[in-house]
Amino acid sequence: MLLGLFLLSSSVSAVAEPARPAAEPASGGAATLPVSRQFDFKSAINGRSYRVQVAIPFAPAPQNGYAVLYMLDGDAYFGTYSFAARMRALLGELQPAVVVGIGYPEGESDLKAVFVRRQYDLTPTPIDPKEAAQAGLSTDPAALGGADAFLQVIEREVKPRVAALLPVDSSRGILFGHSLGGLFALHTLFTHPESFRTYLVLSPSIWFNHQVVLGNEAKFAAAVKSGKIAPQVFVAVGGDEETLPVALPPGMTREQVVKSVAEASMIRNAMDLGERLKALPGIAGYAARSRVFDGETHISVPWASVGPFLNFALAPAKSER
Fold first, then answer.
1. Looking at the whole model, is its pTM more than 0.85?
2. Partners of 199 in the β-ladder
3. 195/175 Cα distance (integer angstroms)
4. pLDDT tens across 275-303, in order?
């Protein structure tokens, strides 16, 4: 279904083990992001291990504490988003926020393991093995469908650890997710919208399991219309996500690739959802936005999203400008 996932899984499978020197230099060691903290833990909820990275803001905390931006696939996006958020807040362009990357200890040395791990955590249900194979996902049904448990890991094990490190405003949580992470963000928005104030949903895998994530959209829409909830949502996608790649994925014919791109309908699915969310008559505080990032692919669009997403989630109040 999702060609971007197939391309990514194929690329990860081809990654060679890095060459290791015979002896580490005395000054050698893993690179770290300045003014940040990192901790690993084994979840008591699902028994899986996680690595959490926390970027400490350069700007002082507001009276009610910092907003917190939780980054899914933290192994990939933590560094870029955290430095952008911290520098811009220091110059007054954004409200200061703690940036939290949620990833895996395996990310230090085994990208293939990370790819498998994220499939379980970010998907709401198992899917048919044939559909999984077409998308480059695991064909083992037990390797998918852990999203609800993963949300509880974030709520009950990650959030308290972050709050113990820094003064945070629990009412101003922000969730970022790309691809399967975007699917997870939508699943959380529709089933537990109170978990975060703002949802940054990038290239969501709405196609997954015959668009199962949309099954809870009507209930969410009714709650917005009645004024029970008023989240902020930004849905975006790359403008080239329905364009055929220059090189075909290994083992796929051009006809198969054309079919995969058409069935995924990445741009149409994301923009149709964005229009529906924008049309909802919510109370004050509800906001929905959508955007196509022209010229960006499924793989390149996360870096194009940094400025617009941070502006949406952390724009200073008018009185602060």
1. yes
2. 175, 233
3. 9
4. 999 999 999 999 999 999 999 999 999 99
CA distance 121 to 50: 11
Q: pLDDT tens-digit profile of 139-153?
A: 888 899 999 999 999
- The structure tokens listed for 157 are 């094990």
Structure-token pair, residue 202: 């990038």
Crossing angle of the two packed helices 3-13 and 111-122, in degrees rounded to 10: 150
User: How many helices (H) and strands (E) in the chain?
Assistant: 13, 8
Task: Give the separation between CA 213 and CA 180, rounded to whole angstroms.
Answer: 11
Q: What is the mean pLDDT of the chain?
A: 90
Q: Any idea how long the chain is? A: 321
Q: What is the C-alpha separation between 133 and 129, in angstroms, rounded?
A: 6
Residues 6+ apart with CB under 8 A from 286: 224, 229, 230, 231, 232, 280
Give yes or no for residue 14 having a pLDDT over 50.
no
DSSP character string of 234-262: EEEEETTTTSPPSSPPTT--HHHHHHHHH
pLDDT at 15: 47
Give the span between the Cα atoms of 186 and 179, in whole angstroms.
11
Q: For the segment 173-203, what is each residue's pLDDT rounded down to a tens digit? A: 999 999 999 999 999 999 999 999 999 999 9
Domain 33-243+265-316 falls in which CATH fold? Rossmann fold (3.40.50)
Joined together, the tokens standing for residue 197 give 């104030």
27 has pLDDT over 70: no
Six token digits for residue 170 = 């629990």
Token pair in block for residue 18: 């890095």
Q: Residues with Cβ < 8 Å from 52, sequence gap 6 or more? A: 38, 39, 40, 41, 74, 100, 101, 102, 103, 158, 161, 162
Compute φ and ψ for 71, nearest 5 degrees.
Answer: -100, 115
Rounded distance, CA 1 to CA 131, Å?
7
Tokens encoding 70: 């939780």
